[in-house]
Design a protein that fits this description.
alpha+beta; two-stranded antiparallel ribbon; about 10% strand; elongated
């Protein structure tokens, strides 16, 4: 009598196969999910800067074309930040000090129906400020970088800079080419931003980029209102040189690297010079990303889906082989 022994694909086999498939698929998809989350954060950051740009435009419309500016010493001295925050007026002597760039930005909160959350990049260390429990009209500035993760073009230009064409006011400013940088993710500050050149390697450039996005780049609000993500701070106006290069928006002066006179905190040099301040909390950067970090999220998703399909096919083949091999016939008795 012939006997047949069939080795079946048991529920345990199925559970193990599905578990392995889920682990492998998750491992393949996690990088894509992380990068998609990063992309979403950049979009929210860009939306914040667009709102800041709209606030600047409305402020200028309501103030005869004047760019937001608090007390000015008239000489374009060294810019300040985070001074006199608890004063009731940003223009009184008891309020923010002269040339305070953050006080200029805070005017948008006092006048343009923006919330303090708009001034916080989702990927920065900053947090939304509650105005120390007061009404926004009772304070005049951000108290520190823990509540601000964007930088504004220094509006306190020296007379020589004005004579060289720098202005943020009236129709002339509004006709600036789109390259001119008005605001951006917060300036990383010295010394690293001073050592980069337009052709610096990636590791050096990361240190010169804003810390908001782990040194990968920064969102920049340009003069025409559009926001663009740049992987280098050399994203301002085009300057002549050999070869021509774009202005470093985090420094002042017409040069870069070891050019004379360049710095981070100072007046713009001329009409092409964006100087975005204040500087932020320059913490350590994460390790440089590996070669797979440049793979697009859609590519990772496709890889994950293909891996899941291959696992399903493999499971089907295993089932078929076990069935075929499990069928045996004993000799006739």
């Amino acid at each position: 009598m012939a006997s047949r022994c069939v080795s079946r694909f048991t529920p345990t086999d199925l559970i193990v196969t599905l578990f392995v498939a889920s682990v492998v698929a998750s491992a393949m998809l996690l990088p894509a999910i992380a990068r998609l989350g990063s992309s979403d954060g950049r979009l929210r950051c860009a939306a914040n800067l667009r709102q800041i740009g709209q606030g600047i435009q409305m402020y200028m419309n309501e103030n005869k074309g004047a760019f937001p500016r608090a007390r000015f010493d008239g000489a374009g001295g060294e810019p300040t930040e985070f001074t006199g925050w608890d004063a009731a007026s940003p223009f009184d002597a008891s309020g923010p000090g002269p040339n305070d760039v953050t006080a200029a930005m805070f005017l948008l909160l006092r006048t343009q129906d923006l919330t303090s959350e708009v001034f916080v990049c989702p990927f920065s260390q900053a947090e939304r400020w509650d105005f120390a429990g007061k009404a926004v009209q009772d304070v005049s500035n951000f108290p520190g970088p823990q509540y601000l993760s964007y930088s504004l073009c220094n509006p306190y230009a020296s007379p020589p800079a004005a004579a060289a064409g720098f202005t943020l006011d009236d129709a002339a400013a509004r006709s600036f080419p789109p390259q001119f940088a008005v605001a951006a993710d917060i300036n990383p500050g010295p010394p690293d931003v001073l050592t980069a050149s337009p052709n610096s390697p990636r590791g050096t450039m990361r240190l010169a980029n804003s810390r908001n996005h782990d040194g990968d780049g920064q969102n920049v609000l340009h003069a025409d209102g559009h926001v663009e993500y740049h992987t280098t701070p050399f994203c301002g106006m085009t300057r002549t040189g050999s070869p021509p290069y774009r202005d470093n928006v985090y420094t002042f002066g017409a040069g870069y690297a070891d050019a004379p006179g360049i710095g981070v905190r100072g007046s713009p040099a001329d009409g092409l010079d964006s100087v975005l301040l204040p500087t932020g909390l320059a913490g350590p950067l994460p390790p440089l990303e590996g070669p797979l970090a440049s793979v697009e999220p859609s590519t990772w998703i496709m890889i994950g889906l293909l891996a899941a399909i291959l696992l399903c096919v493999s499971a089907t083949l295993v089932l078929a082989l076990r069935r075929n091999r499990g069928v045996s016939r004993s000799p006739n008795s």
